[in-house]
Amino acid sequence: MNRRVKAAPYLFLTPAIVLFTLFLALPVCYTFYLSMRRVKVSGLGLGKGSRQEIFVGLDNLAAAATDGELWAGWLRVLGYGALVLIVMLGLALLFALLLDSAHVRLARFSRIAIFLPYAVPGVAATLLWGFLYLPSLSPLRALLDVDFLGATTITFSMANVAVWGGVGFNMLVLYTTLRAIPRELYEAARIDGATETQIALRVKIPILVPAIILTTVFSVIATIQVFTEPTTLRPLTNTISSTWSPLMKVYRDAFVTGDLYSAAATSIVIAAVSLVLSFGFLRVVRGRAFGEES
Amino acid sequence: MRTKLLGVAALVVTLAAAGCASEGAAPAPEATQAAPQGPVKLTYWTWAPNMDKIVAVWNQEHPDIQVTVSKQAGGDDAAAKFLTAAKAGNPPDLVQAEYQHLPSFIAADAVADLTTAAAPVKADFSEGVWGQVTLGTDTVYAIPQDSGPMMLFYRKDLFDKYDIAVPKTWQEYAEAARKVHEQDPKVFLGTFSSKDPGAFTGLAQQAGAQWWAIDGESWKVNVADEPTTRVADFWGGLVKEGVIDGMPYFTPEWNKALNDGKLLTWPSAIWAPGVLSSNAPKAKGKWAAAPLPQWKAGENFSGFWGGSSVAVAAKSKHQAAAAKFATWLNTDAKAVDLLVKEAAIYPAATKGQSALTEAPDYFSTQPDFWQQAAGVAAGARGFTFGPNVGVTYNAFKDSFDKAVQARSSFSDAVRAMQEATVADMRKSGFQIAP
C-alpha cells in the first residue's frame, strides 16, 4: 500500500516527463552532441569512405563563441532590439492606458484595430512593408525622400515592421491587467484629488510593473531570435548580409553552406546568451517587481 | 519532496543520455539491390513543370517500374532539402540536381555511381554538358536534363529609340550603357544583381574562368582567376560610374523596371522567355535575343546559368531501376520531346535541341529564336564545380551586396569568394593543390 502511494506522483508526472524528454531534452542533447562533431574529408572528398564524422570536443563551440561575424550580428540586433523594445513597449503602454481611461471614445474599435496587425503572419507583414519600402513601388517615397532600404535606415525599417506587428499583443497583455485592477483604487485617488494623468502615473503604472516586465522578457527573447524580418527583406536589398542576425547565421551554416555542426554550436551560444539576458533582466528587476511576494 | 525531485531529474538525465547514445549509433540503411516484389516503386523530386504528365507516359509503358513525382520548390533550398534527407536516411530515389549542386551531393556520398547505366547515352550529350555530371573524371554521377546557355536579351524597340546597336563586344556594351544613361538618367542598359551568383558564374565561364579543377588527388581552386577578375572589374566599373544599376533580379522592383522600359537588357539564360513572360507581360513582342557580347570581336563564347541533371540517391534500394528511368527521361526521343513541350526546358540532349522550331510565344517577333540559341549553345563553355559551391555562392552574395552598396571594388569581392571557398575546404580537410 505504502509503495503504491509513493509511486503515484511519478505516475502522474510520467506524461510530462515523457513529453519533456522527447521534445526538449533529447533535441537539446542531440544539439550538444552535434556541436562536438565535424566532418573530416580526405583527398578529393569524392566517393565512398572519403568523409567521416569525427569528434572535436569543444572546438566548434569555441569557434562559434569567438566568431567576429556572430558578435557583429549581436551588435546589429542590439541596436535593432533597443529600438523595438523602447518604441513597441512604450506605445503598448500608452495605448493600454488610453483605452483604459474613462474618456476614451470608440474603445472597442481602437482595441481591435491596434491588435489586428498581430494577427498578420510575420512573413506577410514583412513583405507588405517591403513593398512599401521599395523605391520605385513605394507610395511613401512620394511623401518622404528617404531610402528605406539604405545601409543605416534598414535597422529602422525592420524595427518598424516588428513594432507594427508587436504593439497590439503587448497592449492587450497590459490592458487586460489594467481591467483587473479594482476600480475602488481609482475612486480613492480621485477623492484625494488626483487627475487622470496622475492616476495613470502613480496608480496604474506601479501596479502594471509585473506585466511590463513579463512583456519585456518576451520581447527580449523574440528580439534575440529575430529571423523572419531580415530574411524576408534580404532578397529586396543589398544591405542585409546572410549573417545579419545570429539566427540567420545558424540557418546559413546549416542549410546554405552545409555545416550542421557549426550551426549546432552557434545555436548553443545563442541559447546561452538568451538565458543570460532574460534571467539577468529578471534578477535585476525582481526586487522591484515582486518585492512584496518574496 | 527534495529527494523526489532529484529522482525525477536523475530519470530525465538518464533518458537524455540514453537518447544521445542511440543517436550516435543509428544504423544506416543498406543500399541492397534485393529482387523486387511486385512493381518497383520510385519517388522523384523535381520542380520541372508538368513532370507528372511525362512520368505518366513512362508508368504506362513500364508497369514493373512505377515512378511518383514529388513536386519541389527549386533552387538552393531544394539542394539543402535533398542533402538533409540523404543524411537522415530517407532520400527520394531520384532527384533533380542542378549542375552546381551535384558536386556537393557527390561529396556528401548522397548520389549513386551511374557509370555503367550511363555509358550507352554518352554520345547524346555535348562534351561540356557531360563534364558537368562527371566533374571531369571517369565516373558518371547523373544524367543531364537541361542546360542554360546564356544570351543577351534586349528591348528591340528601345534600342531603336535610344539609337544603339546590339553590342557585339563588352566594350560596345559599356559604351551603350553610357549612351543610354546620358539620354535619360532614369533608364539603365542593365543591372548587376548581387543576389544571383549563377548569372555571374555564367559570365565568368564565358570569359574562360575555371574556378575548380581536379588535379590527381587534389582540388585546384581559382575563383579569383584572370577571366573572373576581368568580368568583375568590368561590371564594377560600370556600377561605380553609375551607368549600370545595382538592383537585384527577380524583385518586384526589377519587374517594374522591365515592364516600364527602364531596363533595356538582361544577360540571361535560354529559359529567360518564361521569366519575362510572367514578370514583364506588358513588354511581350518587344524583346529580342542575341548572342552575349564577346570579350574579343569575332569570338563565339557563352557560359551557363542554371541547368540540371537527374541523379539517383545512393541510399535508393532500386538504383538500377532508377537509372533506367533517368536515362529514358533524358535521352528517349519521345521523352525529350515531352520535356520540351510539357516542361518547357531546353534539353541537354543534342538531338532534342534541334527539335525546337517554333519560337516562344513571348518572342514571336523573332522566328529564328531557336537557331540563335543553337548557335549560342554550341559555343557555351562551363567548368567543373567544386564540392562546396554553397559556400562560394553565399560569399558571392555577401561580398557583392557590400560592393554594389558601397560601389567599391568588385575584384576585391571576387577575392573574398576565393578566400571563403579555400578556407571552408581546408577546414573540412579537402586536399588543395597549391
TrEMBL record, chain A:
Secreted as a keyword of this entry, yes or no, is: no
Signal sequence range = none
Per the UniProt entry, what is one GO biological process? transmembrane transport
Name the domain of life this protein comes from.
Bacteria
Q: Name one GO cellular component term.
A: plasma membrane
Keyword Acetylation assigned to the entry: answer is: no
Q: Which residues cross the membrane?
A: 12-33, 77-100, 112-134, 154-175, 207-227, 260-282
All copies of domain ABC transmembrane type-1, residue ranges = 74-281
Report the principal subcellular site. membrane
Print the keywords alphabetically: Cell membrane, Membrane, Sugar transport, Transmembrane, Transmembrane helix, Transport
Q: How does it sit in the membrane?
A: Multi-pass membrane protein
The subcellular localization recorded is: Cell membrane
Q: Which family does it belong to?
A: Belongs to the binding-protein-dependent transport system permease family.
Its recorded name reads: Multiple sugar transport system permease protein
UniProtKB/TrEMBL annotation, chain B:
Q: Which InterPro entries match?
A: Bact_solute-bd_prot1, SBP
SUPFAM superfamilies documented for this protein: Periplasmic binding protein-like II
Identify the keywords attached in UniProt to this record, alphabetized. Cell membrane, Lipoprotein, Membrane, Palmitate, Signal, Sugar transport, Transport
| PROSITE patterns (UniProt xref) | PROKAR_LIPOPROTEIN
Q: Which CDD domains match?
A: PBP2_TMBP_like
Its signal peptide is 1-21
Entry-linked Gene3D superfamilies: Periplasmic binding protein-like II
PANTHER family xrefs = ARABINOSE-BINDING PROTEIN-RELATED (PTHR43649), POLYGALACTURONAN_RHAMNOGALACTURONAN-BINDING PROTEIN YTCQ (PTHR43649:SF33)
| UniProt name for this protein | Multiple sugar transport system substrate-binding protein
Organism, as annotated: Nonomuraea dietziae
